[in-house]
Amino acid sequence: MIPEVESLSSLSNPLATVEQLSNSSSSLDGVPPSLESSIRFAGLQITQAAGLLLRIPQETIAQAMVMFTRFYIGPEGGSVRNNGAKDVSAASIYIAAKLSADPRTTRSVCNVYAYLMSAPTRQAFPDPPPQDPESYFLSEGSYHSARALLLQTEAIILRTLSFDTKVVVPHHLALTYLQTLGVLPPVPSSTSRALASRTLGYLNLALFSPQSLYVTHQPTSLAVAAIYLAAREVEVKLPSSEWWEVFDVEREDLGFLVVALQSCEGWVKAEKERWHRGSCPLTVDEVNLEIKGMD
Predict the structure, then answer these.
(1) N or C: which end of the chain has fewer CB within 10 A?
(2) pLDDT, tens digit, for every residue of 8-36?
């Protein structure tokens, strides 16, 4: 990862290099790029779902999702054939919550992932039907095994990331920018509320992007791009000048992010259609079985 500029360290993240984006440990292990993208997307989905079930703030969930993405970046990162997306997702949520003011216990995390990985839930995700609690019940022995795997994966993630768990997310920054631009008054109107909501919506959507936008662009750029798209959608007029330059964002970066964010929704829809008849492999055994079936 490229270290952040010291003067802006409080608003910056380490970014992936071109080499890291070109090669991954998974691809070196023979995982097809399309399957790897699907597994990462499914892993991010289950991370978001677990965070909601654990009642974790969205900012903390976003930090977990960025850690999940970072883990699989580059040839020195993790491989889905060695570290399943489900396990990395659980450990990322556990780490992010532990670093926050409201941590979660290992039992809570293990229980939530047992529920999310149960067959009825996975097949109907993200709106599973009511099911028998016995289908996701964790016995004491199963819990201790799951807890050991969770803590083991936590150690692997921390070692792979060189214990750099700092993740700056742009959600609060975007709201500050909206106030600076004068479109989010102290007493918000229905239009300004809609603008703020769509801005945050685009930032959450960017977490699922196939371009891994949160590890290729700084929070300032993501915030500006989300505001640009949200304002156009809600039909809120922004300053006619190149206002994004005030926030140290170049036109080229803004243009790339706008196109990338606009393409996210279509890509997410395509991924859901691809796996609508089955579940994307989230464990090491499932990945190996999927690759074997491709041969």
Answers:
(1) C
(2) 567 889 999 999 998 999 999 999 999 99
Q: How far apart are CA 148 and CA 156, in angstroms?
A: 12
Of 67, 74, 70, the closest CA to residue 90 belongs to 67
Residue type, 61: I
Helices (H), 167-218: 171-180, 190-206
Query: What are the strands, taking DSSP E only, across the chain?
Result: none
Contact, 224 vs 82, CB < 8 A?
A: no
Residues in the chain, total: 295
Backbone angles phi, psi at 262, to 5 degrees: -65, -30
Q: What is the pLDDT of residues 174-229, one digit of tens each?
A: 999 999 999 998 888 899 999 999 999 999 999 999 999 999 999 999 999 999 99
Q: Shortest CA distance to 210 belongs to which of 58, 72, 50?
A: 72
List the one residue out of 77, 82, 90, 80 whose CA is nearest residue 46: 90
Tokens of 166: 């700092």
Amino acid 41 reads F
For the entire predicted model, the pTM comes to 0.91
